[in-house]
Specification:
- The protein is an alpha+beta fold and 261 residues long.
- Helices cover 25% and strands 26% of the residues.
- The strands form five sheets. The protein has a four-stranded antiparallel sheet, with no helix packed on it.
- It is elongated, with a radius of gyration of 28 Å.
- The N and C termini lie far apart (87 Å).
Length: 261
């Protein structure tokens, strides 16, 4: 075989190898994108949001395996515009920036490729400028819910929570106070002249008791910012407490991460 023919054959073989390699890489990318489209969404925070806010923009943090690489996020909900997506270093997080300026209350569908997720847009009860804060005319009563009072039908043990014990003989363990216990004493606060109640955090803090007998009964170990700790009650119990306190002329100050709001 002439030298030039051998060189041509070698070049052709090299070219074919490169084509096969590129084809394999492209197919792998296609398969990867297909898998990403089927990603399960485990969590979106905030869990829901409100229309009619002074600032109509909202940031959603989406968590799910491989969600960062989803090809697109869309919605056809009237009045909602998805401004941008931010893909983080972790493959399991994605930020969505949306504008709700023209949106009405309802259930919006977010499309993550082939995956559809329902997201609720709520109506505010009142605008922020109509809410009354506390003043120097108020009498504040600060309490730790676990240490105040236990209401009726308090559960002995919550299934699914990490290891914990309620034992009033142990100063560093939980004592079993709850939201219903506070609600059942609203008249007591009124008799004292109290006009505002200030709790330590009541959000879920699913931290296990330590081996040497310490717990997070105080509430400063939040693991879910959207759910009342079930040992204190439910989100509905919290709302009922606030509603009944308001009827008695008392307001509620919430403390989260050591900040009173």
């Amino acid at each position: 075989m002439p030298i030039f023919a051998a060189e041509t054959a070698n070049k052709l073989r090299t070219t074919m190898k490169r084509i096969l390699l590129v084809t394999a890489i492209l197919m792998a990318n296609v398969l990867s994108m297909s898998a990403a489209k089927k990603t399960v969404i485990d969590r979106i925070e905030p869990t829901d949001w409100y229309v009619g806010m002074k600032n109509p923009q909202v940031q959603l943090m989406v968590y799910g395996k491989g969600i960062r690489d989803v090809a697109s996020v869309t919605t056809d909900y009237p009045g909602v515009v998805i401004d941008s997506l931010v893909r983080l270093d972790s493959p399991n997080y994605l930020l969505i920036y949306m504008n709700l300026r023209g949106a009405k209350p309802g259930t919006m569908t977010l499309n993550f490729g082939k995956t559809k997720v329902q997201y609720q847009l709520k109506q505010r009860e009142m605008s922020g400028d109509k809410r009354m804060g506390f003043t120097n005319a108020d009498v504040l009563y600060m309490l730790m819910p676990d240490r105040f009072a236990q209401g009726a039908n308090h559960p002995k043990q919550i299934k699914g929570m990490r290891n914990y014990v309620e034992d009033r003989t142990k100063p560093s363990l939980r004592h079993g106070g709850d939201l219903n216990g506070i609600r059942e004493h609203l008249d007591y606060f009124k008799e004292l002249g109290v006009t505002a109640l200030w709790f330590t955090p009541v959000l879920e803090n699913d931290s296990p008791d330590s081996k040497n007998g310490y717990s997070t009964y105080h509430g400063y170990a939040t693991t879910n910012y959207y759910k009342v700790d079930p040992r204190f009650g439910s989100n509905e119990d919290y709302k009922r407490l606030c509603d009944e306190a308001h009827k008695k002329g008392q307001q509620r100050l919430a403390e989260h991460s050591r900040v009173a709001q």
